[in-house]
Amino acid sequence: MIKPKKSVQMMQPYNPPLEGRKGYIRLDFNENTSGPGRNVVKAVGKTKALDLCTYPEYSDFRKRLAAFLKILPSELLITNASDEAIKLVIDTYMEKDEEIIIPVPTFPLFKFYSQVAGVRIKEILYNKDLSFPKEKILESIGKKTKIMVIVNPNSPTGTMVEEKDIVEIARKANHSIILLDEAYCQFSGKSLKKLINKYTNLVIIQTFSKAFGMAALRLGYIISNRNNIAVLKKASSPYSVNTVAMIAAEEAVKNSDYARLYVEEVKKSGVLLKKALRELKIRFIDSKTNFILVDFGKKADSVEKSLKKKGILVRNQSEKPMLKGFIRITFGTRAETKKLISALREAL
Fold this sequence. Notes:
Blueprint: H1 6-10, E1 25-26, H2 38-45, H3 49-53, H4 59-69, E2 76-79, H5 81-93, E3 99-104, H6 109-117, E4 120-125, H7 134-140, E5 145-151, H8 163-172, E6 177-181, H9 185-188, E7 202-207, E8 220-223, H10 226-235, H11 243-254, H12 257-279, E9 284-285, E10 291-295, H13 300-309, E11 312-313, E12 315-316, E13 326-330, H14 334-347
Parallel strand pairs: 1-11, 3-4, 3-5, 5-6, 6-7
Antiparallel strand pairs: 2-8, 7-8, 9-10, 10-13, 12-13
Helix pairs in contact: 2-11, 4-11, 5-6, 12-14, 13-14
């Protein structure tokens, strides 16, 4: 057997429990539990044979998506979901001896792709109350810091980072890329894309996987100033985004009211679940996303198993730093949330 490079030998595999989930109420991966709008499904079904046998063309879709986002096409790069965006930024900007700072707990693929690349990783623990550790981060930024990761709102905590704190970090780390993951921006209603030309080290990633319900189609994008986008485009795969994903996304942004209404439904579900958790005297971390982090303590494993027996999947976070006994629960529709609450009462 030919050995892989040392960084791959040393890393732990990332094996999320993504198999065998059909037939369950899926509240474990922060997906849109209703799927995309019917118009999106219809558009995918009408895909022509000629669209499938030719290599994808991106310019028209990029213009339409840029118009929807209210930015210039030159400030946008579409990617194969956020995953490719993360990998692309790390591969484009980082040398082996340079450092990436990752506040944890957070989305594990930042560490995953950093390990694959073999770069230096500095993890900064969130504060004890799971608030963003701004002061610790500012103290940690050094000459070798090339990328500073900020997930806003953060997953799995659901907490927000204030704009002024991100700006302060961007100024301090002016020699570094501020990689800002805004996967849940449709739920929080916040984005810093207005600052991409004021802070030229700001690189933002967003996705169609969450609010738009298109996780299976793997479509994301990077927003930054035109110079950064030109560099990232130079290093990117020429055909990583497929035509069917673009057809679906174009229909999704054309009828964006669907995503907006889904976000409203999710927020109503969140109100229901938080009320029930308070009644059950169970601690949770307030969230600006489509999920909530709930502290079940020693009961976490039994609650997770009990819910699964009742056809409901949730995500135990106990293996992550600071989250022993916590379960992350996605807000589904109100009907799904009512089933969840009933199952929770029985489980407890």
